[in-house]
């Protein structure tokens, strides 16, 4: 047998995955709500049963984060997500607008490609597989090379769980021969209909440049403003609970603290009391030298590490019980590395004179994570209004970024892919869910006859009275449809009544006697009861009943 280079083997393997995935997607497109829900429930069961094993594998393989927190991430991506999406309408008739006579019907996108980051290598697989199948899509994953083993295990478990519950074979797959060539091939595979990109800026940019529809997220760099009216103890408690969760690997976690001169001492004292260590200028330089490479690019060696691990590597001594390292900053940009995203247990710290300065600083900081998330701790409702105009898709008030931004403790949708809107080059500004993975087609009926539209348009008559009058006269002169000798014929030249679903079925004037028409409902009108019947029949038709 002829030997092939690894990249060629990986490309062929990806083509096979895409073809199998497309077959599965075509089959899954015919499933009904009950079948899909049964599959999702079994996926949740398997994910929860293996949450501990997957978390341990992820930490062992990547060196990022904490096992206990990754277990909870797997729980977020399975049980909590299921409760969030179980009642979402993603199949068949999802809406019927009787007034405007529009029936909205959901159709699956087809085969998805899911890009998996090394920071959340198993929870991302569970989450994306769940929302993909909820929308009746198959999915092929591209694991991060640094997390290929644990990601592969998560893919295998989710596919087995889905197939066991009735899903088609190969409905959830993943690249096993990882290479840049393989990932690029999958992005451009004709079978792939959409890409869900979660990862570094380069990978997300590549997804958007592939020519495929893509849902991508930008970097986060969330500032947390502790305004003068805030309860300082509670604010610090929430920030630390967020920043220390899985050692700061969630992109919505806080990156910089902003306080005011008037509460600076109280904020610093509270951080120290709750496990924050304020580094000296020299210590901060040592830590930054470890954390960043090529300016402000985060080194993967210290992503998701404990403060003890970072301090030891930097050669500095920190108190026992330290939960985060804090470095005071006096500007934003390359000269102040901690003004950038740090997916680990390190925070930047800023002091401003008033809320106006806090506002300007927040905007500066958000330029390095624009469109993502920011938080404010305050009891002043007017201050919340002032900060709601910041260029972030999630403005979190008196809560932690990691748990709040992902919807675990807020009213946001539970999600591990957080859109950044056009600010951050993202196609959505919401927490991504199954509602973003469907096509919606609409069955619509005419409300007004095409040749009567001007007569019905009062706004046109207001702005263009002469044209409206001329059009009405022209319509009246051509209204006869039965008696050529009559100026009006037997058809009324007035606009037809708009009631129910109306459509032209011809005049048929000569076939119907005046007595037969008396008290009869026009035969080109469907009333509300008939509309409901039509919708019911359509729904059953899509279910195959």
Automatic annotation (TrEMBL):
SUPFAM superfamilies: ALDH-like (SSF53720). CDD domains: ALDH_F20_ACDH (cd07122). GO terms for molecular function: acetaldehyde dehydrogenase (acetylating) activity. It holds the Pfam family Aldedh. Residues 15-273 form the Aldehyde dehydrogenase domain. Keywords: Oxidoreductase. The keyword Oxidoreductase applies. It comes from the Bacteria. The keyword Oxidoreductase applies. Its EC number is 1.2.1.10. It is an enzyme of class 1 (oxidoreductase). This is Acetaldehyde dehydrogenase (Acetylating). It comes from Collinsella acetigenes.
């Amino acid at each position: 047998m002829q030997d092939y280079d690894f990249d060629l083997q990986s490309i062929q393997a990806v083509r096979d995955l895409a073809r199998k995935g497309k077959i599965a997607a075509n089959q899954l497109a015919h499933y009904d709500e009950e079948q899909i829900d049964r599959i999702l429930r079994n996926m949740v069961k398997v994910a929860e049963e293996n949450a501990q094993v997957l978390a341990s594998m992820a930490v062992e393989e990547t060196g990022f984060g904490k096992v206990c927190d990754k277990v909870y991430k797997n729980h977020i991506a399975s049980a909590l997500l299921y409760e969030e999406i179980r009642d979402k309408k993603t199949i068949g008739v999802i809406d019927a607008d009787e007034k405007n006579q529009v029936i909205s019907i959901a159709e699956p996108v087809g085969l998805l490609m899911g890009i998996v980051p090394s920071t959340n290598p198993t929870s991302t697989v569970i989450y994306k597989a769940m929302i993909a199948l909820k929308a009746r899509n198959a999915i092929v994953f591209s694991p991060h090379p640094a997390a290929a083993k644990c990601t592969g295990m998560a893919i295998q478990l989710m596919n087995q769980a889905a197939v066991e519950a009735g899903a088609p074979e190969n409905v959830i797959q993943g690249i096993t021969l990882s290479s840049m060539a393989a990932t690029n091939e999958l992005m451009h595979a004709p079978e792939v209909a959409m890409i869900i990109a979660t990862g570094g800026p380069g990978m997300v940019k590549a997804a958007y440049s592939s020519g495929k529809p893509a849902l991508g997220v930008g970097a986060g760099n969330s500032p947390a403003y502790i305004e003068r009216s805030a309860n300082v103890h509670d604010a610090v408690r929430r920030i630390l609970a967020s920043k220390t969760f899985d050692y700061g690997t969630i992109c919505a976690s806080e990156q910089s603290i902003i306080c005011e001169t008037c509460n600076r001492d109280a904020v610093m004292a509270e951080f120290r009391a709750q496990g924050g260590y304020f580094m000296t200028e020299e210590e901060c330089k040592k830590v930054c030298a470890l954390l960043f490479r090529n300016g402000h690019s985060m080194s993967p060696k210290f992503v998701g590490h404990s403060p003890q691990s970072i301090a030891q590597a930097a050669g500095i001594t920190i108190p026992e019980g330290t939960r985060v390292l804090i470095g005071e900053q006096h500007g934003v940009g390359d000269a102040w590395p901690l003004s950038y995203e740090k997916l680990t247990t390190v925070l930047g710290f800023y002091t401003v004179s008033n809320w106006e300065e806090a506002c300007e600083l927040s905007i500066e900081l958000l330029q390095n994570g624009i469109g993502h998330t920011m938080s404010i701790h305050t009891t002043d409702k007017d201050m919340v209004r002032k900060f709601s105009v910041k260029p972030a898709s999630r403005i979190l008030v008196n809560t932690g970024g990691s748990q709040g931004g992902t919807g675990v403790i807020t009213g946001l949708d539970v999600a591990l892919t957080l859109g950044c809107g056009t600010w951050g080059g993202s196609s959505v500004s919401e927490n991504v869910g199954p509602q973003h993975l469907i096509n919606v087609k609409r069955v619509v009926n005419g409300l007004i006859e095409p040749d009567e539209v001007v007569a019905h348009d009062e706004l046109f008559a207001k702005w263009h009275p002469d044209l409206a009058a001329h059009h009405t006269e022209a319509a009246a002169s051509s209204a006869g449809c039965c008696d050529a000798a009559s100026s009006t014929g037997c058809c009324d030249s007035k606009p037809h009544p708009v009631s129910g679903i109306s459509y032209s079925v011809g005049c048929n004037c000569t076939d119907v006697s005046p007595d037969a028409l008396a008290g009869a409902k026009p035969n080109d009108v469907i009333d509300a009861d008939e509309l409901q019947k039509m919708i019911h029949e359509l729904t059953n038709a899509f279910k195959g009943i």
